[in-house]
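Records of this kind hold a single protein each, on a pair of labelled lines. With that in mind, the following record should read easily:
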Amino acid sequence: MTLRIPPPLVVLVAALLIWIIARYFPMPLLVTPAISIIAGVIAACGIAVVLLGVAAFRQSQTTLDPLHPEDASSLVTRGVYQYTRNPMYLGFALVLLAWALYLSAWLGLLIVGVYVAYMNRFQIKPEEKALESRFGQEFLQYKKAVRRWL
């Protein structure tokens, strides 16, 4: 399967869908300062996880292009990649979760689930296939040792 849709675009579409849900199906009784604070903390954690993932790729001097994982010059397994094989996608999921909470778009939580399912099927599995082809046993051992999300 060829990867065609850049993950940041998938995130933007999901964020827009969450906003539409919040706009047309408002739940104002659930808007509280505590929810906003929790959403802010989750968003900050999500952004930090994304940035740690990007930094690990930069340190390994390998491609960040999610559409061409076969171009990777090295398998990144250090830093945040010791805990999750997909920190950037995990971070984006946390940001989407925070966005849904901040907007009190409780139905938007379904969009977060759809994002995770979509990424598993159409991004992560093809990436894993490309990385297995590129790095062989090294990737298989890493895959066995580290979970896909958390």
